[in-house]
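Q: I'm writing a short methods note and want an example of a predicted protein-small molecule complex. Could you take the sequence and the SMILES for S-adenosylmethionine and return the bound structure as tokens? Please keep the output block clean; save any remarks for afterwards.
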Amino acid sequence: MTAYTDPYEKFAKSYDLFGDITDIDQNEEAFYRQLFSQHKVVTVLDCACGTGKHCYLFTKMGYKVQASDISEPMLSQARENLQKLGMDISLKRCDFRELEQHFDDTFDAVVCLSTSLPHLHKDKELIRALTSMRGVLRDGGIVIIDQGTTHSSIKPDRRFELIVNNKDVTRMFVKDVEENMQTIHIIDIYHNDLANCLEHYSVVYRILLDDDYRRLLKSAGYKNIHIFGGHDMSVYDPDTSQRLIAVGEA
Ligand SMILES: C[S@@+](CC[C@H](N)C(=O)[O-])C[C@H]1O[C@@H](n2cnc3c(N)ncnc32)[C@H](O)[C@@H]1O
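A: Understood, no commentary inside the block.
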């Protein structure tokens, strides 16, 4: 496996403070139902499964799901989460730049969701990952790349964002944006243990926007590229969209 320093090593245990993996927005479920039905999807590979949120969602929706992630702590959290829900899903430790070495099957859809691809910073590596995803897709299958990073999320007035705030914990993002890179500092403040009340994690992302995805997906051999601006299936609009979801056909 390509050398990798895991930003989730400590973060995995508390990652689900973002929300329980079963907490799925109805619009998100409807989005995938429509897209998967349009493309006759039955089998799905989630190649950056994290703690298992979309493994849960797609299995619950009736799709045949396999999953992988590069981070053993995230996979371990996913195993624990899915076991509790009685879901038996094959989870492999695997870099999404090397999927063909780990999967003999081909899939109708490969998904890489919630700002996972931008962990890679160089065009060469991004194209390598997208090509590897295409390598495990059937002809006409689709890749879906999803992220919260948009033209508006990186504006200076969004530098500080409150993500979670309840009686137990406050989670906020502080974003340092420089040219085409951003570091997201995740700050957790626990309210019930004042001696150990502060945790801090950082993730460094390449900023990829709609034109980047058009270019990268095209270079990796995809056609019929479409960029959505949210789970409402709107077309991506740099002025207003709060999500970016890139879809390409193998
Ligand atoms: C922000 S989390 C998103 C997790 C999940 N997709 C979700 O929706 O909650 C990003 C995930 O990408 C994974 N990841 C980063 N680089 C990767 C790589 N090269 N290959 C496979 N997984 C990777 C991380 O380990 C982490 O689990």
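A: Remarks, as requested: Helices lie at 26-38, 53-60, 72-84, 123-135, 210-219. The pocket of S-adenosylmethionine is lined by residues 8, 48-50, 53-54, 69-71, 74, 95-97, 113-116, 119 (CB under 6 Å).
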